[in-house]
Each structure stands twice: as C-alpha cells, then as structure tokens.
Amino acid sequence: MQTIGQQLINGLSLGSIYALLALGYTMVYGIIKLINFAHGDIYMLGAFWGYYVINVLHVNFIVALLSAMVFCALVGVVIEAVAYRPLRHSPRITALITAIGVSFLLENGMSYLFTANTRNFPQVIKTTTWHFAGMHISNIQVLILGTACLLMLILELIIKRTKMGKAMRAVSVDPTAAQLVGINLNHTISFTFALGSAMAGAAGVLIGLYYNSIDPLMGMTPGIKAFVAAVIGGIGSVPGASLGGFIIGLLETGVQAIGLSAYKDAVVYVVLIVILLVLPAGIFGKNVKEKV
Amino acid sequence: MLNVTDLVVNYGAIQAVKQVSFEIHTGEIVTLIGANGAGKSTILQTISGIMRPKSGQMTYLGHPIQKTSAPKIVQAGISQVPEGRHVFPGLSVQENLQMGAFLRKDRSAIKQAYADVYQYFPVLKQRRHQDAATLSGGEQQMLAMGRALMAAPKLMLLDEPSMGLAPIFINEIFEIIKAINAAGTTVLLIEQNAKKALSIADRGYVLASGHIKLSGTGQDLLANQAVQQAYLGG
After folding, report:
1. What does the alpha-carbon distance between residue A138 and residue A115 come to, in Å, rounded to a whole number?
2. Which residues span the membrane (chain A) (predicted)?
C-alpha cells in the first residue's frame, strides 16, 4: 500500500512533466497538422536557459521558470516562422522531415556550442523530504506537480475563455472559415507555438530540478514519450494530452517499481500499440473521416 | 461599391473564371446564378481574399482589393457566408458569433450586434450556449449569416444559402436576406435556386462555364426565355 502510494506520487510528478510537453505536441498538431519533432528540444533549451540564468544571474526559481517560458515561446515562434511557415502549403511529409531537421539542428548546435557533457542543474530550491504514512514526498515533487497543474489550468482558461484561444480552436477546425471572419492565420499559429513552447520551457526547468542533470540530448526520449502521451490521449485534444502524460508517467514509475526498470521505455510503446489497436483516435480523439 | 473587371481565376490547372466583369451598387441585392461548376464560388473566394486572381481588377469603394488579405477584406466591410455554412464545431453558438466580431474592438457596438443577430434569428439566442455542431442545417445557415453580420459588413457575400435546406427554411432565409438588405447592407447572392434568387434581386448575372452570359434586372432575367429554359426548369 505504501509502495503504491509512493509510486503514485512519483508517477504523478513525472507524468505532469510529460503532460506539459504533450500539450505542445497536441496544440501544434491541432492547428497545422504537424508533428513538431523539435518540441522535445525546446524543452532542452528551457532547461539550459534555466541553468544559465540561475548560475549566472542568480535568479530564483520563479524568475527562472517564467523567463524560460518566455524564451522558449520566442524560440517556438521563430522556428515556426523560419522553418515551417514557408512549407505551409507543401505536403505534410515535407514539414515533418523539416521538423526532424530542426530537432537535429538544435541538438547538435547545442552540443557544439556547450559541449555534449551532462551538467548538474543548480538546486535553486533546497530539497526537503517529508515522511508521510511511510511515503517519501519531496518538496520538489510537490512543486512540480503544483506548477504543472497550475500551468495546465491557465492554458485551459486561455483556450476556453480568451478570444485568441477561441480563434485557435476556430483555426484548428476550419482555417478557411476562420480567415473569412477576419482571423489572421499566421498570428494564430504563432500564438499556438508560443503557448506550446512556453509549456515545454517550464517542463525543462522542472525536470532540471527533479533529475538534477541536463544535456543537449535530454529532449529526445521525453519528447518521443510526450508525443506518445499526446497520441494516447488523442492527438489534437488538450485534455487528452494531459491525461496521456499522467498515464505515461504512472506507467513508467509503476514498471520501475516492480523491478523492470530496463523495460520501462518498451512498456510505454507497448501501451501505445495496444491503445491504438483498441482506440485508433486515442482516448479523447475524434474519429475524423478524411474528406475527399 | 464593388467593380470587378476582366477577372480571371485559376483553380489548380483549370481556368475557373474567365474574364468576368460585373458591378454592385451600394444598397443593391445582386445575384450571380449559374450551374454547378460555373465559377460562382471561385469569384466569392477571390473577392474575400482566399484565392488570388490571375488577372483582372477588383475595386471596392474605389480601392483595388485584388492583393488584399482575407482579414483586411473583412476589416474593410466585406463578409462572406460560405457555401456549406462552415460554422465552427466545438465552439458554442455565441462563441461562433464572437468570432464573427473578431476584428471589432468597440464593446458596445458588439453588444448591439449580438442583439441585432438575435433579433433576426431568435432560435440562435435560445441555443446560444449549445455547440454549433448540434444545430440543424437551417440553424447552422442562420448562424453562419449571424456570424457574418457580427462584422457589421457593408457588403455581404452569400454562397448558396438555400443549399440542402427544407423549403420552410429557404423562405425564411430569403426573407431575412431581404431584411438585412433593407437595413442597409448590400448583398451579393450566389444561388443555384435561380428563381428564388432572381425574385429578390435588383439585378442578376448569369454565369456559365466561367463567363457572364447574360445580365439584367431580376425581373427581366426571370422573364427571359433562355434563362427560363436553362435555369428555371422551362
């Protein structure tokens, strides 16, 4: 019982980071039908930004988190404008390959500039562990879970309540009709990239605190897992991405807890395959028929 | 108000619109009638800035608009009610209307616009919190028209508003088009239901395979033998 409770907490805090990342995949897919494979690397950039501002400018956690979000939002907007926008009317596969190219560029560019060494993320918040009913809960875990949930709540409010959020939804369901009411597609797409990338930046700083180490290739595996989370939840669905993230996080820690650490990644992909067999559109996905 | 001169538009490899010229005066209802594939929708998409002309001029209130972006066209006062409604599913009726006023800033004017739309279409007020996807075809047509009205257009482009609707809805929609026009909005109406369209139009143009074949007042075209044979079922 204690073990289950403990793993639940570990899984939720890890899952909340996957959820933050998965949101970016799902929003970008929702609006331009592109799997942005560079998304995991934006998370890496967020972690590096956090590393530098904490080490060099000695800022506190909140400033590091918010500035990483702003920085990553700008990076996301620039990537979209430079790499994806010129391909808006190209076949989807062209943009997809470009996304992989952007991902390689960021990973190798960062390795070149900052070396591929793993660095210790500065522990800007002193870790304290609480013992509660036989479980160990660290303040970092609570902070991660709380911050992630707060960000997701804010994102949900932006999408549901604000005019830009509604415009995002309008563009994702019907870009032509959206233009006919005067919505500027480029602005709306930039806004979407900014939101998604800001979430990734926050996730990067949080993971730095959690795992205490960052490197230029750190975005690869979590990026793919967050993509899996978005697919499991139903790509294009915002609540689906959050749920998918938590599912992946819980699965991973659960598999580790029963002593199968070596298979934790494999299990994630097995679950992906099973879910796609049973629910091809994911948990919250709509079964959209291609219009011919 | 709108002058279209020698408009040529390609749709992929096909020349969908070939040297079309027509004009719309302020306050009129003008209709473009013609068979499916005659190029009617292409003309509207080009005016709205969704498609680009290959050649030709379009001037609106004296300004050339052939290179103007879609949002700027809406800003300038041209709103389109697209063929097949194209309301936003997943957004409520009210949110759809809010999107119609996307470019407007004046809150009290927007509030008035809601009131006007709900007056034209009381059913939308009843259903304002409902997902637009749950509306019937006729209600979606009303929502699409309401959404266009929210932009306070000077010129409203209507693409096949009667398509796929029950006769009772068709009559209602045409009555409302007349009311919108009477309230000061100029209307360009595209219809396959030529008889209905000509009966409310001040003037009409007959379009066939990308060309204007005939033009005249609504009544003249209704009485025209060639039009009757080709488009009004004898």
Report:
1. 31
2. 12-32, 52-81, 93-114, 134-155, 191-214, 226-251, 266-285
The answer to whether residue B152 neighbours chain A at the CB level (below 8 Å) is no
Q: Which residue has the tokens 């490197």?
A: A215
List pLDDT tens digits, range B81-136: 999 999 999 999 999 999 999 999 999 999 999 999 999 999 999 999 999 999 99
Pairing of strands B29-33, B186-191: parallel
Cβ B169 vs Cβ B141: under 8 Å: yes
pLDDT in tens, A177-198: 999 999 999 999 999 999 999 9
Q: Which residues have a Cβ under 8 Å from the Cβ of B231 and sit 6 or more positions away? A: B33, B34, B35, B194, B195, B206
Q: Are A186 and A244 in contact (CB under 8 A)?
A: no
Substitution target in A172, A179, A180, A191 with the highest count of B β-carbons within 10 Å is A180
DSSP-based three-state secondary structure for B16: strand
DSSP B68-104: --HHHHHHHTEEEE-TT----TTSBHHHHHHHHTTT-
- The CB-side HSE value for A6 (13 A sphere, CA atoms) comes to 14
Q: Helix B93-100 to helix B137-149 angle, to the nearest 10 degrees?
A: 30
Rounded Cα–Cα distance for residues A69 and A199 (Å): 7
Residue type, B154: K
C-alpha count within 13 angstroms, C-beta hemisphere, residue A62: 0
ipTM of the complex: 0.93
Task: Determine contact: A162 vs chain B, CB below 8 A.
Answer: no
On whether the CB atoms of residues A8 and A14 are closer than 8 A, the answer is: no
| Domains, chain B, ordered by start | 1-76 (3.40.50.300)
Judge whether A100 and A232 are in contact, CB under 8 Å: no
* Chain-chain contact of B151 with A181 (C-beta, under 8 angstroms): yes
Sheet of strand B2-11, all strands in order from the earlier edge strand to the far edge: B14-24, B2-11, B55-60, B63-64
Question: pLDDT per residue over B56-66, tens digit each?
Answer: 999 999 999 99
Can you tell me the distance from the alpha carbon of B152 to that of A72, in angstroms, rounded to the nearest whole number?
38
Q: Residues 6 or more apart from A61 whose CB is under 8 A from it?
A: A124, A125, A143, A205, A209
* B152 vs B109: CA distance, rounded Å: 9
Contact A25, A32 (CB under 8 A): no
